[in-house]
Amino acid sequence: MKLFYGAAIQGAENRKKRANIHKTIIELIKKQGFDVYTEHTTGKTYNEAIEKLEQSIGNMPKDDLKRRIFVRNKMIEGIESDIKAAVFEVSTPSLGTGVEITHAYLRPRIGLKEIPILALYEKDYWPNKLSTMIRGISIEELPNFNLIEYASIDDLEKIIHNFFNKIS
Q1: pLDDT for the residue numbered 13
Q2: What structural domains does the chain harbor?
């Protein structure tokens, strides 16, 4: 079974630090028996992220604009593919991750099956806290959207285990 994992990589203050969090989350997801669409968020450098991305979505155009369009389209394809769920790490603000989340929860509007969505936020990570556009998603509006705050790796392990127990 496959799922989509998304998180900020461009705006991260420290790519290496966040790459380790992403790697931990992806490993916990895999322990639950799921494959991840792409693991490029685990890249500790720009080049490593690109290499991991190409392993998942294929060779990218060399031209910067064409590459960005290609990646955007492939990420949307991933979200609109036959995935069982989507998981997002939302501690670092990201327009791209916001677009991915929107595509995930709007799947039914384009005739695709609704999927459970897990958004993970590291407590007190970002000085301005979590975006209102994410924090403002209510369970009444989107019952399949789960926003959960974590403070440790142990928390992540429990959260991910509980989330996947509910959807398996």
Answers
A1: 64
A2: 2-167 (3.40.50.450)
